[in-house]
Amino acid sequence: MLRRRHVIAALTAWTVLLLWAPAPASGAPPVPRPAPAVAPAPASGAVAASGAVAADDTCAVRAPGASAAAERAVAAACEQVAAGVWYTWGGGHGPRPGPTYGQVDPTDPASEHDPERLGFDCSGLVRHAYARATGEDILNGVASAQHYTHRAAERFTAAQGLAPLVPGDLLVWGTSQKLHHIALYLGAGKMAEARQSGTKLMVSDVRLDGGYFGAVRVDTGPVTGHVFSTWGEGVWTKAQPSVRAARVYAFPGPTTVRVQCQKHAETVTSDGYTNDAWSYLPDYRAWVTNIYIKGPAWLDSVPTCPSDMR
């Protein structure tokens, strides 16, 4: 016991000396002190709609510049991501926007359980997001129809990369003849997507390789321009107003299109009709014979294209 008292007394004395040690002389190095705790730096470019920084895997508006409707579309898609909704092939294409049970994709063995899963495929999610954002079913269709929408405000090529994009823009993959995937851009190089069978809706890094085709910004306001509907199935648009010109895109069925102008060019005979009028479709950057546009042989109110336009 006595020895223990001596030890305690010695420790007390040393503590007093340390507490009352004089400050170092001018120019002497300061006594090191523990650094205060610092919060980790935010992820670069990840900005939520409120201005707060979002974590890398957070589904949110992650950059400025989007319209209010586009931000609502992102929020609607992210709500489904947060809920852990499944990808399901054909999901989201019911009579009204929203999740539906899927189908078996004959090309994908992983889709065997899709008929049991309530969810979305890629275009079903996009359809739902913009329907929630606008209160109207403005993007009802598959990926190609959504990309070539007559509601396009602006289009971007793959060569332009992500720099000009804002949250809510639609990213697509494939070729001019077949677009097979679409996703919703969040900003800061991230996107929300329904990717493939066997997975749930997710936030991913934008894949600029593997067939990235470009993007489109959706105009949620009133439709502008001369809008018509096509008829027939597998009707090809062409790079020039000629049946021998390169193919651009085939309408799988009746499609709403915006016509910029029309001109007399190569005469075409098809399905019992003969016509030399061709219409230029700015959303496709392509031509289609007027035979497959519902209306008269020469479309009312549509101007004639400039003579040098090919």
UniProtKB/TrEMBL annotation:
InterPro entries to which the protein is assigned, alphabetical: NLP_P60_dom, Papain-like_cys_pep_sf, PG_Endopeptidase_C40
Gene3D superfamilies the record matches: endopeptidase domain like (from Nostoc punctiforme)
Signal peptide: 1-27
UniProt superkingdom: Bacteria
Keyword DNA-binding: no
Keyword Hydrolase: yes
Segments forming domain NlpC/P60: 67-224
Region (Disordered): 96-115
Keyword terms, alphabetized: Hydrolase, Protease, Signal, Thiol protease
UniProt record similarity statement: Belongs to the peptidase C40 family.
PANTHER family cross-referenced by the UniProt entry: NLP_P60 DOMAIN-CONTAINING PROTEIN-RELATED, PEPTIDOGLYCAN DL-ENDOPEPTIDASE CWLO
Identification of the protein by name: NlpC/P60 family protein
Taxonomic source organism: Streptomyces lavendulocolor
Lineage: Bacteria, Bacillati, Actinomycetota, Actinomycetes, Kitasatosporales
